[in-house]
What does this fold into?
Amino acid sequence: MSVRILTIKEDILGANEEKAKMNRELADQHHILMINITSSPGAGKTSLIMQTIARLKNKARMAVIEGDIASSIDADKVSKEGIPAIQINTAGACHLDANMIRKALDNLDLGQTDLVFIENVGNLICPAEFALGAHKHVLLLSVPEGDDKPRKYPLMFTQADVILINKIDVLPYFDFDMGAFSESVGGLNPAAKVLPISAKTGEGLEQWFSWLEGALDRRK
Amino acid sequence: MSVRILTIKEDILGANEEKAKMNRELADQHHILMINITSSPGAGKTSLIMQTIARLKNKARMAVIEGDIASSIDADKVSKEGIPAIQINTAGACHLDANMIRKALDNLDLGQTDLVFIENVGNLICPAEFALGAHKHVLLLSVPEGDDKPRKYPLMFTQADVILINKIDVLPYFDFDMGAFSESVGGLNPAAKVLPISAKTGEGLEQWFSWLEGALDRRK
It folds into this structure.
């Protein structure tokens, strides 16, 4: 039984990997930068996207693909800003996959898009196993979750290009040790860029915008 | 392919359900109350367990089964209090299953135990699908995660006997609407007991201890 399950899992991941490559090629054809954003539930992915839309909407044509088990709360927020948003409801599945992303891309005007944010399902585990074809992986950890998360969820932290520590406006009210966190991340993924931010107050966001604009420039 | 996967999934869930029933029977034979605690990463499951150990250690003989992808951080904390703790590392799996719990139970002195806490992997999705044999399901949501979580992760909220809203000590610093939260929960699971608490300051914990002692008394 276990060998059979393992084979099925390899089949699924292999097929997903192929489709992810095709997504990447599609984005490349249109010179689109595609960014996969992951985090625990409620860490602030949508707030980060909203702040980024407000700041960059005159510089880049953005679109957002929202992944949730249920509801369209996040896509509704993005649409109100006049940005194309596709809501994917995974109907129980704990992550987005490459096939879902392809369907969403097919519903966007790719010729009129420079930057696609993919907001993955709130989960520090399963999304790490499923490639989507994104060029960059941004992981958001919020201060209230605690500094021990890299040790508990290592794969996700290993894969990130950028790790944003969100909600630093509430640092005084939590026992979050920035030094211990940096040390854990350094042991897993020394190349990751770690940026403390508050998507609520705007603190630290300049560094995020600057990283993003640099990545956009390199796509041109 | 999808039919084949669905069949495999049903096989897995069916076999798990059987093993969960056996865990429940084993606990019942020893008059043990077994409680499954789920939440997002960093919502405060371990802090709740530590507070409960401090309060009830002279009234009930407790043991803790800790589930994590990696590390033994949580089991180490519990062991320091002189309480038996079994750490399960799921090696990537996003939830505990009934088989893992059986192995942990086999490593506890059940004749000397009244109450077993199972701290599930930090995840609002996958643990909802895998029965463990627990008598009660306690779901912890923390204020910083936001009041919209029942709408985004409905299955988990539907299954809970008790929903603890943790970290109410930081309510002034977050936009958490207690009324909107209660309304969402009421629509999904009107029978659930909702208790606002702070595992850090102790606020509201009396209601939790009182619920737990009631459940323990009913097991005798």
